[in-house]
Write a structure and sequence with these properties.
The protein has 14 helices and no strands. By secondary structure, it is mostly helical. Keywords: Membrane, Transmembrane, Transmembrane helix.
């Protein structure tokens, strides 16, 4: 997912409703795009790394700590908070994507949205750190989703603008690795800062601000103030951008479904990680945070193998689907191991398997998305935002229904059924891998 730092000419914006340049069932390969340079690649990797340190650390551990502080014994509130934030992004995403596609600014189309997202994201971290109750904590998370989500989204839009097919797997592997390792660093930092709520949120946030700012400053985008569009943007046309006919782009639709199923399982698996580990180890959530941080360090190697190995091999072998299916199967295996675990060694084995699966899926499925992305030159932001539904809907729905799985068989003891939750997660990720095997335009 890259962009040439020397500033290769951007595609001229046109109407969001323009017809695709190729037949509906033919994926746009991007073979005509020039290869991007190493400077841009690494700026993109570091920028996405920074966003995930700032944004995923609260989801991984900091929100759990704050929920436990504000409402002890009510971990279901965590699901309601994360679900509400994902719902807000789901509603706003396509509109913001279309606005990015059609932005007329001296800084180009993508950078203004990154800057605004950083400002809003930083404010959200302060709100979450200082929130006196659950409601304000939830409001802070919604702001974080909108702010940091816009930064990440526009980084990814820019890759669709400039990344050729020959580099998609490699660069997606590097960014996939970075975005999976970032929470490890975030959790490690959070484990050392649990006694100071402000530092707990702002230290990871500062890393994100610095690294994204480097990208904004040093990656050139053409001035788009002179861009013209044959069709005016109206409230009605904006609403229509939320939908498309799946029959027109079947391969894109199968990719969407596969991603939806995988991230549904992933969200079920990860939302309650801190509470799950605390339950299996018989310790408090605060104590589990330190253990999770230590275990997460072992996941760095596993994630490296999955993300970089899968990404580079998919480019070299010119195959995507088998790697995406394998990623779903590996994650499912890890989730089952965790579901039946009764001690720390099995938890570590399960976590390692899921790390390989997440890394490979994040890398290769992103490359696969760029391979089948419709209307790349005119509507990249729109269609990538619609793809965002495949992650935001699971993030909104899975945490809301997870308490129902946790409550099955709880009985009078009130012990949560994490085994069932993790088994359902495994089924979903395996189904996600299978869905992508239906894609026909990419091997």
């Amino acid at each position: 997912m890259t962009m040439n730092p020397s500033g290769a000419p951007a595609q001229e914006p046109s109407s969001a409703g323009a017809q695709p340049a190729s037949p509906p069932n033919e994926a746009l390969t991007g073979d005509t795009l020039p290869e991007v340079g190493a400077v841009y690649i690494w700026l993109m990797v570091f920028a996405q790394f920074g966003v995930f340190v700032a944004f995923i650390t609260p989801l991984a551990i900091s929100l759990s700590i704050r929920v436990d502080q504000l409402a002890p014994g009510h971990e279901e509130y965590l699901g309601y908070i994360t679900g509400s934030g994902a719902l807000a992004v789901m509603v706003a995403g396509p509109v913001l994507g279309v606005l990015s596609d059609r932005a007329r600014t001296r800084l180009g189309r993508r950078r203004p949205f990154m800057i605004a997202g950083m400002v809003l994201g930083t404010a959200s971290l302060c709100v979450m750190a200082l929130a006196p109750d659950i409601v304000l904590l939830g409001a802070g998370w919604i702001l974080a989703q909108l702010g940091w989500g816009q930064v990440l989204g526009n980084l990814q839009f820019s890759t669709a603008d400039r990344l050729p097919e020959s580099q998609r797997g490699k660069v997606s592997g590097l960014t996939g690795f970075a975005t999976q390792v970032a929470p490890v660093l975030g959790v490690a930092l959070a484990g050392q800062l649990t006694r100071d709520n402000l530092l707990l949120f702002l230290v990871p946030g500062a890393i994100g601000i610095v690294l994204v700012t480097l990208f904004v400053v040093f990656v050139h985008e053409d001035d788009t103030r002179g861009a013209t569009f044959p069709e005016a943007l109206t409230p009605g046309s904006l609403l229509r951008k939320y939908l498309y006919d799946p029959r027109t782009y079947p391969d894109y639709s199968w990719n969407w479904l596969g991603r939806f199923l995988f991230y549904f399982g992933l969200t079920l698996n990860t939302t309650f990680t801190a509470f799950f580990f605390a339950s299996r180890m018989g310790v408090s959530v605060d104590e589990a945070a330190g253990v999770i941080a230590g275990i997460s360090l072992f996941g760095v190697v596993a994630t490296t193998v999955g993300a970089i190995g899968g990404g580079f091999l998919s480019d070299r072998l010119r195959r995507r689907r088998v790697f995406v299916f394998g990623a779903g199967a590996l994650f499912a295996a890890g989730a089952i191991v965790m579901a039946v675990s009764a001690d720390l060694p099995l938890l570590i084995v399960g976590a390692a398997l899921t790390s390989v699966g997440i890394g490979a899926f994040a890398a290769v499925d992103q490359a696969l998305l760029l391979d089948v992305l419709p209307e790349r030159e005119t509507d990249a932001g729109r269609f990538m935002s619609i793809t965002g539904f495949a992650t935001s809907i699971p993030q909104a729905v899975a945490p809301l229904i997870a308490p129902a799985f946790l409550a099955v068989g709880a009985g009078a003891t009130g012990e949560k059924n994490y085994a069932l939750l993790y088994t359902v997660a495994a089924v979903c990720t395996l189904a996600g891998g299978l869905a992508t095997t239906r894609i026909r335009s990419v091997r």
